[in-house]
Amino acid sequence: MKRHTLHIDTPHARIETVIEEPDVEPVGLALVAHPHPLHGGTMDNKVAHTLARAALGRGYIAVRTNFRGVGSSTGEHDHGIGETDDLIAVAEQVEPQFGYLPWVLLGFSFGCYVQHRVAQRLHARQLIMVGPAVSMYEFDPPAIPTTIIHGEQDELIPLAAVHAYARKHAIPLQVLPEAGHFFHGKLVELRKLVEGLLRT
To answer: What percent of the chain has pLDDT over 90?
Structure first.
């Protein structure tokens, strides 16, 4: 696996980005978004890292960023608005380096809110939302084919709220038994679920 760390300039920030390439001919690009930056979320969060590993395992180039103000990314938290702009800008600069492969989007918690906004503007073929913070943010109907994975025992985002959002918009929902919001002890199962969902 090849790993590159770089800083990508966007209109309002300089975004720390890690790009990891699989050992096989890549089938696409996977953009991964981490949980809330004001509550310790970074691109090295265990769930975000697991999503990247799942993408690599399916032959995708995994692209992770630190949101504004996290790690060596500049700027200040912008409640998902500026973060959306940053991810779009990162994707547009990464794409040409790899021959414009198709995108898939993966997000965790707050990262799901950002990614569901990215999906409205970036041509991507799939969105996987893990533990989406639907009880904390106003989520729109999905713009692209979407699947939700949620922990049965999520202590931060009630499963009932996720059920309601998924049912309202006919989004497939996979519930991971006995898993909390951060999927402690369930990361292997989470990775297998995501690998199974990723289209190649």
So the answer is: 98
